[in-house]
Amino acid sequence: MKNSFFSNLKHDAPSGLVVFLVAVPLCLGIALASGAPLFSGIIAGMVGGIVVTAFSGSQLGVSGPAAGLAAIVLAGIQDLGSFEIFLVAVVIAGVIQFVLGVARAGIIGYYFPSAVIKGMLAGIGVIIFLKQIPHAFGYDADPEGDLGFIQADGENTFSELVNMINFISPGAITIALISLAILILWEQQFVKRIKITQVIQGPLVVVIVGIVLAIAFSGSSMSISQDHMVSIPVASDFNGFIDQFTLPDFSAFGMIEVWVLGITIAIVASLETLLCVEATDKLDPQKRVTPTSRELRAQGIGNFVSGLIGGLPVTQVIVRSSANIQSGGKTRASALIHGFLILISAMIIPNVLNMIPLSSLAAILLVVGYKLAKPSLFKQMFKSGYQQFIPFVVTVLAIVLTDLLKGIGIGMAVAIFYILLNNLKNPYVLKETHDKAHKHYRIVLAEMVTFLNKAQILKELNKIPDNAELLIDASRTRHIQHDVLEIIHDFKESAKYKNIDFKMSCSDELDLNGYDQSLGPLMINVETESNGSKTEESVKSEV
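Above: the chain sequence. Below: its structure as tokens.
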């Protein structure tokens, strides 16, 4: 299948439209949560869709302002004293990200455990679902795009579900329920067989129906106020539109605080992007692999441009990317279309967008969240074993109860614990044989032996009885850390007093770090059993 921009336009155009509808309120909500001008979120959405996509190698990833950076942006604007100075930090962050991409730092993205990435997807799905329920009920105190547990309105993700009961809007609930019914209907096979439904996506129908119902409810008890609608800044003319773009104050370029903030944004934005790239690739039906270093360069260019024209920092974001995949996007064209739609709509038809009820969009995001956190995913991870399931569940819970980056960090810590635990369990294979007169022990070391294996190997050495023979077989070992060699050397010395016949075999390639002489002859073909039993070489084939 060709990956050119327009080879799958019949799939990418409808998907790009859905992503656009999802992205607009998220861009505005993240700008609001960041304490930045609302239009800066729209600018970041344009840049993420157009500029980043043009340089990216990700076929389905969609970039834009990220909720994970909202707290950093808010603190940065307050500390620096002005939004114009903050933009200089965004420009610097872009340059740093581009340099990281040139240095091929994107390889870091391949070291995130699969269980953590799947936990991130499910965790974000749970958050999206929980956060959109109040919006569906017509309570919009918490901005769209906020993924943190502690919210800007003083509530948290769970307390908001109770608090929203005091602010129910009948009109919003009605629109949300009808929207959900349409989206569920659109997923049914008998509807999918209708040709027009293959072209017109369910979310577009939901938005149109939402606008019509909002107009119909106007002036009645079901009326929906402007506070519960999309709210894009409206310019009176083209010059007014251009005036909404902001230039950085480069007189602050030498401020150390600006550089510290720029480095912080670059690191956090790069990590979020790499995590999202891994997650998006897992969701891709074609299982394409995104070149991560190229993605860092693309994000760097995007942040450089966004900072120059007054936009928030951008990253690749999983909410929009998953919406793109679920809507049938095939290539980068869908992300590009979404970017141009944001630009055109903000320039020409902001008033039309401001007629969309947030409850309609909440219904779309509820479906997106459910698909990311399907019960089948939890069942699949459970069947994979506890060493996969526990890091997965911990990541989900940590993301829901903290925020994205902290949750990933906690999930990584648990996953690394299980990796180390496995490493501790597999440093060697112990074989014991004996005849009437002698006991023979053979410890076959693994390919890599590190200080983490020290305790286990020492424990086994201490079990070797007096008057025995011991062969430590390192013939397949490529590396033994100094700590382990030290305890082997100490055991050799103590073996003299226990009448233990000690030998060690290894290949010429193994560096014994100065212990070559003290460990005695390096045996390659040593008989480990007597009375017609097997030689070392024959035993080795069984280990």
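Residues 256-283 form the longest helix (28 residues).
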